[in-house]
């Protein structure tokens, strides 16, 4: 399993709407260099750094930087509208991405299914996988039904280990139910804490290995479903600290802890040329 970073690994460094901007917002090219600096060769660029806002020239320049640093790119967006998905299929072709990750944003899964069916022939012709992420709007059962209805070799699940709390579902159930359809994995660890007045709980992000996610169990379930070859993307729910600058520092610390942990439990394949890492710290 190959480990990669995402624009949602260093979300505060990219910029979060409604908060002050980071002192030096991370660009896609800076993220490529930072990914390689940590000894990794995979980067997923999602909807918080929208690729459709870049010109063809900018996309080609990004591809050149990625090739120079030996970093594979994956593209992501949100929505199921055919014109959007086909646009991202074209971007995937330009960047050499084997997937387009998306989120179904409408509660009407029947309508989304019809939209997805419309674009699947183009995805098949381009040999690109459409990876639909569980994001809390729909239950696991609804998503399983969607994949069973579609029954197509070029659509599957981008499985996020935490998002389905929004649908009142625990990770162990979600992982077991969606792993048969897995084409891309988002590793996100978490903790659940009772609030100080004892009337309620909060779900908080943690570095990988520091929370309640059973990462070894996750690996075993994935392997049992014959999905050990999928790419795994590290994502972080880093809580806001005193300032965006302080939060970015925490985010970077969590990134380093997470990669160290995932290496220590042999969750990922190592690229021995870069395993020690050479982080370009000036990028942040």
From TrEMBL:
InterPro entries: IolE/XylAMocC-like, Xyl_isomerase-like_sf, Xyl_isomerase-like_TIM-brl. Pfam families: AP_endonuc_2 (PF01261). It comes from the Bacteria. Transmembrane segments: none annotated. Residues 108-263 form the Xylose isomerase-like TIM barrel domain. This is TIM barrel protein. It comes from Paenibacillus rhizovicinus. The lineage of its organism: Bacteria, Bacillati, Bacillota, Bacilli, Bacillales.
